[in-house]
Amino acid sequence: DCCTIVDHITVATNYFFSPTKVADWFYDSISIVLSEIQKKPQRGMPKVEKVEKNGTIISIILGVGSSRMLYDIVPVVSFKGWPAVAQSWLMENHFWDGKITEEEVISGFYLVPACSYKGKKDNEWRLSFARSEVQLKKCISSSLMQAYQACKAIIIKLLSRPKAISPYHLRSMMLWACDRLPANYLAQEDYAAHFLLGLIDDLQHCLVNKMCPNYFIPQCNMLEHLSEETVMLHARKLSSVRSDPAEH
After folding, report:
1. Which residues, in sequence order, are bridge partners of residue 100?
2. Is 191 helix (H, G, I), strand (E, B) or coil?
3. Among 26, 170, 178, 206, which is disulfide-ready with 212 (CB 3.0 to 4.6 Å)?
4. Which stretches make up the Mab-21-like HhH/H2TH-like domain (predicted)?
5. Dist CA 17 CA 4 (whole Å)
């Protein structure tokens, strides 16, 4: 029920584990569970305010008293080991060398229901290294993480339309910066403001050049599809932020 059928030129029939059909099945399953919970409410349990499907993402709003909590849920296929396409990345020197083991970094990866910019959404999945990112964050200073959170807020507030830069792009840029910059500089605990300006500069550089390699798969440029109009629009917004970050 979760497969699509595609006829090949050799007359053979190919079956693809369809991300869109998996997402539909997942949404139906979540809806049934939440419906049962709503039929039998219990004291202290959050109230389901809203369930919405946005593409392959399920957004759930839960209410507790006057508070509201938003959860975005996405189905994934989990794998142990490491994908061949990212094997060469392991051969390079990285900022986390000697801080955590390679086994911790490559403990597994996911397939998420999302395709490339011009891909086939019914057949294509995207590699996710979220499990590895959790391990790498252990090696990043608190001041750099503060700068990342501030820059992430800027992206969500100012660069959400037209869609071009996301927090995922920013994470890749930050991890590349960790590989590029001296460890003693990155360890400075009172440099959050410096790091924020550096991340904004990196964002501008990536935008103007339409070049943002995926941290784990460097041969994958995540910004090559952007139009010149979108690039210049967001670059101007970032220039405004860079001139006076406190205003934003």
Report:
1. 97
2. coil
3. 206
4. 163-238
5. 7
pLDDT for 223-238, tens place per residue?
999 899 999 998 888 8
pLDDT for 74-95, tens place per residue? 999 999 999 999 999 999 999 9
Arithmetic mean of pLDDT over the chain? 89
Q: Domain residue spans in the chain?
A: 19-73, 77-243
Residue in 116, 129, 126 with CA at minimum distance from that of residue 90: 129
| Whole-number Å distance between alpha carbons of 214 and 144 | 19
Q: Which of the following CATH numbers is that of domain 77-243: 1.10.1410.40, 2.30.110.10, 3.40.50.880, 2.30.30.100? A: 1.10.1410.40
How far is residue 142's CA from residue 159's CA, in Å, rounded to a whole number? 25
Q: Which two tokens stand for residue 132?
A: 């590895």
3-state secondary structure (DSSP) of residue 157: helix
